[in-house]
Amino acid sequence: PPPPLFDVGDALAAMDHFSPRVGYGEVVELAPGVTVRFHDAGHILGSAIAELSADGHTLVYTGDLGSWHRPIVRDPSPAPPCDLLLCEGTYGDRPHRSFSESVDEFREAIRTVLGRGGSVLIPSFALERTQEVLYVLYLLWKSEDIPPEVRIVLDSPLGSAVTRAFARYPDWFDQEGQRLFSQPENPFRFPALAITRSSEESKRLNHAGGGHIIIAGSGMCTGGRIIHHLRHRLWRKEDGVVFVGYQAQGTLGRAIVDGAKRVHIHGEEVVVRAGIWTINGFSAHADREELMRWIGQAHAPRTFLVHGEAHALTALGERLTGHGLQVEIPSPGEQVDL
Question: What is the pTM of this model?
């Protein structure tokens, strides 16, 4: 294989250029008359909405906008008033189920699989989603809503590294998260949780019996250790796969969610016999109603919708237009006169 373009040393060296550190709400002058201010996007720990001002005009770009009332992360900041808004629209065509309903569905899926002697696979994004899943699993285990003897395994090197990073910054959590993580036993450290340290430990999970909940990346099943677990467990009717994140078109995860009876993994055809659950309420993206409410707060004369499949952006654009907003959906490479 070709040598990597950069290694860990290069990445660490690059971090020296990310200064000065900027807090939410601080105004930073980029050039004479040009300033930027960041607001909490509520998507992942540290995510930010950029508010760029110049010549008396303001442009706001959401990046990924989070959902409200989520574990650990704070809610998104209110939309700053602006002249031009660039907003994501990942879930612009539909609402999420409430988080409490999603947790109930999550619990029932786990109890169903464990009850028939199987194990649960949870494909999960390493950043934010894995930590949220651990948070919910801890609460279910603590309340004995799932069997106390269950073995919860985080089998993701990147997910483990991100989880350690989260644990270093509890001051950035929401109030409930700060309270929970002030205890010695918490969602990232409790008796039922094991974290794999090597590929050999991961491989041994493929031959373990039932009673396991295995969290592994990648979230869309495009690579990572989840691929090997799917290859070994997808054909077992006693096992189950619980999807807790968005599955893009063309990914293995999307094929499974869409009901494929057979999939190809590493050149091998695998029959899908395991139970499949899709729980969209875990999404870290704002849903249709949240986007509508947040965009309305900005009072922007022009709104550009980006970051979403065409049908989602179109549906959101139509609803916003119906509320009197001027909405545009730009094409890749399109230039716009601001």
Answer: 0.86
